[in-house]
TrEMBL record:
One GO MF term: nucleic acid binding
One Gene Ontology cellular component annotation held by this UniProt entry: nucleus
Organism, as annotated: Anser brachyrhynchus
Compositional bias segments (type: Basic and acidic residues): 8-23
Domain tRNA-splicing endonuclease subunit Sen15: 58-157
Region (Disordered): 1-35, 156-178
Biased composition, class Basic residues, residue ranges: 168-178
tRNA processing in keyword set: yes
Protein name, UniProt field: tRNA splicing endonuclease subunit 15
């Protein structure tokens, strides 16, 4: 819902020397120094922890501009005091839920379960388990993504039988070397 785009001029809101309207002194904030509308919208949500808002904004920027994900939108969960992001890795993919958290936040199993229940999206396929991706934000703005799924997820089969043979051989070699 909030993307950086072309600056739109509004009547009476032009910068000095541009278009018609009220003259704005050079000391007024420019688009480069004003916060993005998305950050302002996140700040207006009922989330009291500013570090959580900042983490959500960094993940938003990483998904949208660093990884080129599609339809990145923020959703406030006031009861959890979290901001979640819904996004698509590719246009045809289904929406994924990202839960940004600062690295210094401690999460219990109960808290993770509560986040999973309230933040995950309902799926059309009942066989698809609930899942969310924790986006853990380090103080240097590094983001680590950790996908959590409710229950066990069976791994995809290997692409070829040669891969299976290599895996079996590696296991046998490990046993023999002990």
């Amino acid at each position: 819902s909030c993307r950086r785009g072309k600056e739109r001029s509004r009547p009476g809101c032009s910068r000095e020397g541009e278009g018609e309207g009220v003259r704005v002194p050079r000391t007024a904030p420019t688009p480069a120094t004003q916060p993005l509308p998305c950050f302002t919208e996140m700040m207006s949500l009922d989330i009291s922890d500013s570090s959580q808002i900042y983490a959500a904004f960094l993940v938003y920027l990483d998904l949208l501009e660093g990884r080129n994900w599609h339809e990145v939108k923020h959703v406030g969960l006031a009861e959890l005091q979290l901001i979640c992001l819904h996004a698509r890795e590719r246009e045809q993919d289904s929406l994924q839920v990202m839960v940004p958290v600062p690295v210094d936040i401690s999460l219990s199993h109960e808290r993770l379960r509560e986040i999973m229940k309230k933040a995950s999206l309902s799926c059309d396929n009942p066989d698809t388990p609930m899942s969310v991706t924790l986006a853990i934000v380090e103080s240097d703005s590094t983001v680590v993504y950790y996908k959590m799924t409710d229950g066990f997820v069976i791994p995809e089969p290997p692409d070829s039988t040669q891969d299976v043979d290599n895996k079996h051989w590696k296991k046998k070699r490990k046993k023999l070397s002990k």
